[in-house]
Amino acid sequence: MAIIQLEDVSFRYAAQPTGEMALRDVSYSIAEGRFVGITGESAAGKATFCRLVAGHIPHFYQGDLTGSVTVDGAPTTDRTLGDLASTVGFVFENPYDQLTGATSTVLEEVAFGLESMGLSREEMRERALDTLDLVGIEELADRHPQRLSGGQCQRVAIASVLAMRPEILILQQPTAQLDPEGTEDVIRVVTEMNREGFTVVMVSQNLDRLVPHVDELLVFDDGRIQLEGAPRDVLTAAVERSLPIPVPTPVRVGHRLREAGYVDRSEPMPITLAACAEELKPLVAATSGRQPVVTDSASSFDRSGVVEPDGSTAAASDTGDAGDPRDELTASGDDLASARTDRVVFDDLCHTYPGGVRALQNVSFEMDEGCVCIIGQNGAGKSTLVKHLNGLLKPTEGSVFVEGTDTSEKRVAQLAHDVGLSFQNPDDQLFHDTVESEVRYGPRNLGYDDATIDELVERALSQFDLENSKERNPYDLVISWRKRVAVASVAAMDTPVVVLDEPTSGQDAPGQAILGEFVTALGEEGKLVVVITHDMDFVRRYADRVVVLSQANLLLDGDPRAVLSAETTLRKADVQPPAITRLGKLVGLSEPLLSVDELLASIEREQN
């Protein structure tokens, strides 16, 4: 029985230009108890589909709607939003759009919606605590919702909806800002709810994690459902047709193996790492003369160049060498100020927020140029760290130097000449009524002449494919495009240091490629780009260096291949190596992999 039914549905938002459509002639039904995954490019129609099911269209978003949407046997046009909310739970892509702003603790936030259900105070408290435990943030119950990291806020938003236990659960990019542990928690909870009979619809660009759990997968493009069906069939068609979606690593590897003739094309395409490893093991065993060995550490990999928690390199600690490669970082602040040539230096940095939360503890390292990716679990201190670079935060203890000057001695406006920072939430950054005026604001505020401003703005709009959107209001764009606008506005400032906080979260494949090209170009210009991210695929492709934070401390720092192969240590920071790195380890390859090309090259070398 279909619990969700769309018949010949088309929709155009009131703010869309004439002739554009958000959804075009979509017909689709979802049976009760199914788990449906949705992906596709930004602005392809995914969010509109979800808003229609939840009744946000037409009851909140205005526009031209044709066709019919039926949920649980009744047209959504005949039901109120309040009535639909008892059936459909909706998790927004941006958690800050979902938090009420009317509560002082996380527990109150999660219990807020339960007040309308007639539960007793004790029942509300018990259900809220149980839900916080389900999503792994019970320790945050007494924290203020507005003083959490973006990823922690996302978990709170998810918990507030799960606590209501709606029959239908719509999740729009729910894991985009989460660390691997948070992502696994959400997938686990949602999968368990689905097994209990709840109907789940989840939009995601993180198909590696989502696909193994869904019954059906939809690929949207230009307002239409381009592909639909069983995940394996959809992904096989997508990779064969080179569609611009984030095809999971097992599928990409399986496709390459079939193209190269290593596996017969009639064999089912693997959609999990385990299945892909089983397909690879005979090739590795046959070519190397040994059986693959699965280990629980990265000790078999060359990890030279990694700074361990005690300051020693992995290689040094393995041999008992007590040398400390960070000795140069222990110089006094005066010495650093006068002698360092690095663009950025953190010297014994500590930061404690009001209320006593210790966000950074004695962090010391320096950065000069190239792409430095900072990774770690939600709440590790990543955003706190980079906000010291442009003076938004001042050290509680220790010092931060940018271009040789102590940041505590400069105002934010002065530091803006050296450091451009794109926030995790673009809505905290954007305030102009057109994309072009937003991008133009930064360089104009820095005092560039008109000709230079025009050149910088034109280049930034081109870099981020925003030329056709320059007259639009940023808030008429989907959040992933608003992130592009926010990054473009920083790019136009042409600062020697560029900081991007979670720029790839929720981005489609073309958006990620654009960001990668931008980061690469800045590195080639000799600039420093600092990227905070949970996206290990982005890290393996574009990072020149990786810094790992865990529970306010510096955990690892070094070459991407070495850091990303330190699986046991990374686990302490709730970080998983990229899927291709884990796959190489599963099949017993002796060197850590950072790409599918390296995997194929390794097999070819062994065969020859």
List the helices and strands and how they pair.
Layout: E1 2-13, E2 23-31, E3 35-40, H1 46-54, H2 56-59, E4 63-71, E5 74-75, H3 81-85, E6 88-91, H4 106-111, H5 121-134, H6 150-162, E7 168-172, H7 180-195, E8 199-203, H8 207-210, E9 216-221, E10 224-229, H9 231-240, H10 249-259, H11 273-288, H12 314-319, H13 333-339, E11 344-352, E12 358-367, E13 370-375, H14 382-387, E14 397-402, E15 405-406, H15 412-415, E16 419-422, H16 435-445, H17 450-463, H18 479-491, E17 497-501, H19 509-524, E18 528-532, H20 536-542, E19 545-550, E20 553-558, H21 560-564, H22 567-572, H23 579-586, H24 596-607
Mean pLDDT: 88
Number of strands: 20
Rounded Rg:
25 Å
**First-residue to last-residue Cα separation:** 56 Å
Q: Give the neighbour order of strands across the main sheet.
A: 6-7-8-3-9-10
* Residue runs with pLDDT of under 50 for 5 or more positions: 287-305, 309-340
Return the structural class: alpha/beta
Helix fraction by DSSP (H/I, runs of at least 4)? 25-40%
Count of runs of 4 or more consecutive helical residues = 24
The profile of the biggest β sheet is: 6 strands, mixed
Apparent shape: globular
What proportion strand? Answer: 15-25%
